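Fig. S4 source data, part A: sequence.
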Amino acid sequence: MAKFIKKNLTCGACGHHIKIDVLASQHVSKVALDGNLNNATQYKTIQVCPVCGHVALNIEEPVKQVSLIQTKSDINYFLKGAETYVLNGNDVLASYMYRLASWKARGSHDDLWVEYKKKSIKYLEKYIDSLNAFNEGNIPYILILIDCFRMVGEFDKAKELCDDFLKILSQFKNKQLINYYTKAVHLELQYIENLDVSEHYNSEVH
């Protein structure tokens, strides 16, 4: 069960004091390798200012520019949030917002999910390329990127990144981390060999 709480916040775009429902906790049981939680609650992680319409994961974070996309559908909220993150140089959260749009579209049998997934790839690649060093906090994004490449059929890029990721993992000392991600990469390589573009889950990594 998801739990929401009412919070008094200040919009980082317009500065108005607002009161909105904020997600406090959610149940997660079937997480995909691209980060899809496969529940309806993940789409409620976004926060929307009722005054100016600003969309963000943290509505209080100050922004210099906001997207002008009209929110006529659920997916438009994610696209609006993604564009705002792009305008403010936050590539990793822009990528996440585009993945939310992709998951929502795919669940609705909307072929635009591939376009949104490719936009997520674009900004996740940009984020990873900007890193000066890899650590336990940012390497999960590499696996997400591999999985995104595979799911849109870009198998060569996915395989190349698998090979790079295995080299990166050799730099770490955490055996549990190395073991998990090594198994995940070898699974991805199997999916790539089979030209498999379907969704796969963390539970398959064992």
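Fig. S4 source data, part B ends here. The chain has a mean pLDDT of 94.
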